[in-house]
Amino acid sequence: LSLHAEVSCHEDMMRSHDLIDCVERELMDPAAPDEFDPDGLVTRAVLAEALYRLNDRPVVSLEGEDFDSGSQEVDREHEEEEAVYPFSDVDPEDPCADAILWAWQEGFIGGYDDGTFQPDREITRAEFATLISRFEPLETISLSYPDLEPDFWAYPYLAHAVAKGYMSGYDDGT
Predict the structure, then answer these.
(1) pLDDT by residue for the chain (174 residues), tens digit each?
(2) Could you write out the three-class secondary structure of 57-95?
(3) Residue 129 burial class via C-beta count within 10 angstroms: exposed 0-12, middle 13-18, buried 19 and up
(4) How many Å apart are CA 4 and CA 42, to the nearest integer?
(5) Rounded to whole angstroms, how far apart are CA atoms 109 and 126?
(6) 140: burial class by Cβ within 10 Å (0-12, 13-18, 19+)?
(7) Residues paired with residue 32 on neighbouring β-strands, in sequence order
């Protein structure tokens, strides 16, 4: 992959070297053979895969799983049967299935009450801040953004991400 040429077109990107590092470390697959798509949106599956790869692709198993992290309940009368993948919308044979299972088992990404994971749903900045904040103890600061109230569900995670320098507000002050 010749990412250097594409990134040079994005000179205004403060951290183009991070994009190159991301591809070289194989944390994310390119959008096409010669394209990374740095402005592309990130889905829940892509983020789970990146976190999984960052942690050296640990072995995952459904054995002994409780299925209590916002996903479907297991029929306890049939526990002896083959293990069931916890999300109805993720095929266990999907290339991202192990990454999704690992991220869920580690508590980084939860499922939804309806038993789905919604792997193709794009994540918000608040969701991203929440996920990366789960890797370390929260360090928070007081934020002053007109579109962010302290009682917003992700406020402590966004404050952590800003405090650590993982993200910042926009030029317009939001």
Answers:
(1) 333 444 444 444 444 555 556 656 666 665 555 665 666 778 899 889 888 888 888 899 887 655 544 444 445 454 455 668 899 999 999 999 999 999 999 888 889 999 999 999 998 888 888 888 887 888 878 888 889 999 999 899 898 888 888 888 888 888
(2) CCCCCCCCCCCCCCCCCCCHHHCCCCCCCCCCCCCCCCC
(3) buried
(4) 21
(5) 13
(6) middle
(7) 35
